[in-house]
Amino acid sequence: MSLLTLEKLSRLGIEDKWLQPLNDAFAKYDISTPKRQACFLGQAMHESGNFKNLEENLNYSALGLMKTWPSRFPDLDTADKYAHNAEKIANKVYAGRMGNIEEGDGYAFRGRGIFQLTGRENYANFGHNAAVDVLSNPNLLSTPEYATLSAAWYWNKRSLNQYADVMDVESLTKRINGGTIGLDNRKAQINKVLDIIA
């Protein structure tokens, strides 16, 4: 298996503290070839602002809420009551979904980690797999170790190595993001990583 080095991380603009978590996660989930690692890292760099944003940004204006969740915020009056209140927004938009069953679950289990793991069910499934209680301590997903491990777990769960092997970045992006937002940047990041680590 190809291992990342501090020199390679430095050239990618990724902090040293990510080296061991990335190498450990790559070993655990067979993200073992330059293509697989480049696709993982390129997607991660796009999703997390180069490993800097590990928590979902829910600071939406009223208009932003209406655009992002039109069925939940159908008019300005409704949206105004939630604008710029991350906790209130998360509890409204994630209530009763993704295994969220208790009041406050939406905010407690908002997107965290490199790929923004979201919802009580995803947290529970990851925690069971990693043998760590992230339901009691969801902030663990904002640490390098668990931000990386949860992303690699999600990668494995969605069988993404098969798309990385053939460099099908569009299919990868759809399975990570739900659409193709930022596809050109993702491709550019992946190619940059491949140049450095191959």
Report, as a whole number of angstroms, the end-to-end distance.
Answer: 12 Å
How large a portion of the residues is in β-strands, by DSSP E?
A: under 5%
The succession of helices and strands, N to C, reads HHHHHHHHHHHH
Give me the number of helical elements: 12
Principal-axis shape: globular
Q: What number of structural domains do the residues give?
A: 2
Q: Regarding CATH, which class of the largest domain?
A: Mainly Alpha
Explain what the structure shows.
The protein has 198 residues and is mainly α. The chain has two domains: 6-53 and 142-197, Lysozyme, CATH 1.10.530.10; 62-110, no CATH class. The protein is 56% helix and 0% strand. It is built from twelve helices and no strands. It has helices at 6-12, 19-28, 34-48, 62-68, 76-80, 86-93, 105-108, 120-130, 144-157, 161-165, 169-177, 183-197. α2 packs parallel to α9 and α3 (34-48) crosses α12. 39% of the residues are buried. The model has no long low-confidence stretch (mean pLDDT 96).
